[in-house]
Amino acid sequence: MAWDKTKPENDMLLINFPPACRANWDALELLTDANLQITNAKIAAGAGIVDTKLAQITTASKVHGSALTGLANVPSGAGVLPDANSPSKLKADASDTTPQYLDGLIDTGVFQVSAGDLLQLANGGVGTEKLVGGAASPGNNKAYGTNSSGTKGFYDSVDLATNQILTGEKTLNNLKLGGNANCNQKQLVSAVVENRTSDPGSPVNGQIWIRTDL
Predict the structure, then answer these.
(1) Which of 25-29, 64-68, 194-198 bottoms out in mean pLDDT, i.e. has the lowest?
(2) Which of 70, 153, 194, 208 is least enclosed by beta carbons within 10 angstroms?
(3) How distant, in Å, are the alpha carbons of 92, 107, 128 from that of 123?
(4) How far apart, in whole angstroms, are the C-alpha atoms of residue 69 and residue 82?
(5) How far does the chain reach from its first CA to its final CA, in angstroms?
C-alpha cells in the first residue's frame, strides 16, 4: 500500500488501518513524499535549535568566509590562517617555526624577503646615517670616528693615539702632515717625515728627515 495523504479516512475499516499506517511511516522514513520532509520553511523562527544538536560541518565550501566572526578567539592550536586574500603574509601556527614576515609592513629599502621566506638585509639597506644617527654626513676626505667629545660621526680629522697607528713591527713610511701637528707637545708646521738614504738638497723649515743608511 502506498502513502496517500487522504488516508486513513474517518470511515476506514479498522482492518485496513495497519497497512495504511505502515505506509505513512515508510513515507516519513524514506522521504518519498516531499510534503512530509522537514524543510527550512517548516522550522519555526523560535525553534531555538542549539549547536549541540548539529553535526560538525566538515564539508568544503559549506561555511562562507563572510560568516566567520570572532577570529580573535581562534585557539592557538587551530592551525594556519590562509593568506590568499591578505596583502601581507600571515601565519598563526604556534608549532610552525618557519620564519614568516608581514611582507607589506617592512621597509623594503632596508630589508627584503628571500624566496625561502627569510628576512634579509637589502643591498645598501644600512645607510651611513644609521651609523651616526643622522648627526653627521660622509663626504670627501672625511673619516668615520669620534670627536673630542666622543660623538660618533664623519669628521675631517680624527684624533688617534700613536699606538693606534703603529703596532708591533709595522713601519710608517712617507708620513705627510698637513697643517699643524703636535708631537710630544711640540708644534711642527707643515712637517714632513721622510725615510731617506741621502741628505735633502734644500731642507725646509719644519722638515724632519731620517737617514736609514747610517
Answers:
(1) 194-198
(2) 70
(3) 30, 13, 13
(4) 15
(5) 136
Plot region of 93 (φ>0 → left; ψ -120 to 50 → alpha; else → beta): beta
> Would you put residue 4 in left (φ > 0), alpha (ψ -120 to 50) or beta?
beta
8 Å CB contact between 34 and 3 = no
- Overall pTM > 0.85: no
Confidence of residue 152 (pLDDT cuts 50, 70, 90): confident
Residues 35 and 207: their CA atoms lie apart, in Å, by 118
pLDDT score of 105 more than 70: yes
| Element holding 85 (H helix, E strand) | none
Question: Quick one: pLDDT at residue 44?
Answer: 92
Assigned C-alpha cell, 37: 520532509
How far apart are the C-alpha atoms of 78 and 57, rounded to whole Å? 15
Q: How far is CA 5 from CA 8, 9, 20, 27, 190, in A?
A: 8, 9, 10, 10, 122
Identify whether the C-beta of residue 196 lies closer than 8 Å to the C-beta of residue 209: yes
How far is Cα 210 from Cα 27, in angstroms, rounded to an integer?
121
Give the containing element (helix H, strand E) for 146: strand 143-146
Element housing 21 (H / E): helix 17-30
Which grid cell is 79?
592551525
